[in-house]
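User: Here's a structure from my thesis project, written as structure tokens. My advisor, Dr. K., wants to see whether a designed sequence matches the one we expressed. Can you design one independently, without my sequence as a hint?
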């Protein structure tokens, strides 16, 4: 509800979705910045996948 009890995975998933949305928005404005945001999103996804492996 307030975000106090979100797990690390949930926070990373939100950040991932935000970065993908930003990447998509930038894709029509500035392709290189869009690619940077996409690369950031991929790093976050990699972190999420590693969290899943640890559990």
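Assistant: Designed independently from the structure alone:
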């Amino acid at each position: 509800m307030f975000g106090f009890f979100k797990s690390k995975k949930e926070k990373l998933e939100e950040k991932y979705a935000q970065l993908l949305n930003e990447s998509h928005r930038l894709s029509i404005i500035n392709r290189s910045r869009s690619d940077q945001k996409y690369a950031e999103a991929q790093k976050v996804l990699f972190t999420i996948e590693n969290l899943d492996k640890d559990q």
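When you compare it with your expressed construct, this may help: The chain has two helices and no strands.
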